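Take just one protein record:
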Amino acid sequence: MEISKETVFDEFENYSYILEYYSPESDLEEKAHLGITHWISLLLYVVAFVLGIPGNAVVIWFMGFKWKKTVSTLWFLNLAIADLIFVLFLPLYVSYVVLSFHWPFGRWLCKANSFIAQLNMFSSVFFLTVISLDHCFRLIHPILAQRHRTLKNSLVVILFVWLSASLLGGPSLYFRDTLEVNNHIICYNNFQEHDPDLSLMRHHVLTWVKFLFGYLFPLLTMSFCYLCLIFKVKKRGIPMSSKHFWTILCVVIAFTVCWTPYHLFSIWELTTYHNSSFQHVLQGAIPLSTGLAFLNSCLNPILYVLISKKFQTHFRASAAEVLKHSLWEVSCHGITSEQLRSAETKSLSPLESIQ
C-alpha cells in the first residue's frame, strides 16, 4: 500500500514518539535545520544508551544482588530496572533516525518499542513519587513508618506501580501501527485515519492522560512532599541525612528538567489540528525534547555516584569485595595448577621427567 507523504501529514498529525518530521514542502534551508535537530537528538539517544546500559546495570547488580534488601534499595532498584529496559530498546530509535525514519523492524516491534517508552515514563515518575512519599513519611512519622514500612508492603506498592504504568502505557500496543509511505515504513499512532474527529479526540485524551498522570500530578505530589518535609524538619528539628535528601531531590529535578519540554511540546502539538503555522517548529522541537527525555534514563546512576556518599561507600566496598574475590579465584586457580603440575611430575619416571 502506497500513499503520498502529503496525505500522511494531512491525516496523521500525531507525531509523539514517531519522528517522521520531514515535510515535502520544506525548503532546503528548513530541511537542513531539521536535519541538524534530528542528528542532535540522535546524539542524545546514543549518549543515553552508552551511559544507561552500564550505569543502570551496576545499580541493579549492587542493589539487587550485593546489598542488603531494604525498602529504599527496592525503590531505586525498580527505578533502575525501568530505565535499563528502556535503554535496551534505544538502538531501535537510533536505527530509525539513521535510516531516514524508515522502520524495518515490523509492526509488533513498533508497538513494543513505543509501549516500553511509555512504561518507562510512567514507572519512573511513579517510583520517584513513591520515593518522595516514603522519605517524607519516614522522617515525619517515624513510629508509623517503623510499623508499616516493611518489605512485604513495599513489594505490594511495587507491583501496583508496574501494573498502573502498564495500563497507562497500554494504548501504545493498540494504536501504534506501521505504514508504507514512498518506500519508507513509518511507525506512527493510527488513531483512526478515516474519522478525523475520532482521531482528534483520541489524540487529545492520550496526550492529556500522559501529561496529568505521567507528569503534573506526580510533580505536584513530589513538590508537596518536599515542602512539607522542609517545614516539618525546621519546625521539629528532626535529624535528616542531607546527602540522602539531596540525592532524591536531584533525581526528581533531573526528571522534571528532562521531561518538561517533551510534555509541553506534546500539548502544543495538539494545536496542529487547527493551526499548522507552528508545525515546522514542532518538527524540530519534538525530536530534541524526546531525546532530552530519553537522556533521563542514564542520569540517575550518575547522580547516585556524584551526590550520595552512602552509595559511594557501598559501591567502593562492593567493588573491593568483587575484586578481592576475583583475585582469590585467580590465586586459587594458580595454586591448583601448580599442584597438578607437581603431582604430574612426581608420577613420571626420571627419564620421562627429563624429556
